[in-house]
User: Fold Zinc ribbon domain-containing protein from Subdoligranulum variabile.
Amino acid sequence: MFELDIEMLKEQGLQLVDTAKKTAQNLADKGKNQLDLINQQARLSKAQRQLGALVYSLHKAGEENQPLVDKYIEAIAEVEKAIEEIKANMSPEEYMEAEAQAEEEVVMPEEEEKIEEEPVQLRGETKICPVCKAEVDGDALFCNHCGAQL
Assistant:
């Protein structure tokens, strides 16, 4: 009878370990989904700003480069698709938590005004296009001269 109790305790202990493991994995997956969503939303915002800066720069220079604009639009569509896929794998509660977290990280109004006052072209570091060797914004997804993906 004593041996049966030990076996029963052992089995219950294994069940508890398995339950704890599953709970920990679920929490990790939940956090990863939220982090992925926040990262993709930041990428979307950045790509949209870059597209706006490109269109403005082209307009100001009196130039057109529709293939390059289309590449930015395609890149934005891919990020939007990734966001929708992440949302589909989240519960409504997870999504609301991620949205609340993202709102906390939004730029403060004073900082927003400073950003608007900066020149639209070439913010931050620059890099050289591997195809045409033109100098482009360090955050650019595509070269604004030849359209090569960076």
Q: What stands out?
A: The longest strand covers residues 126-128.
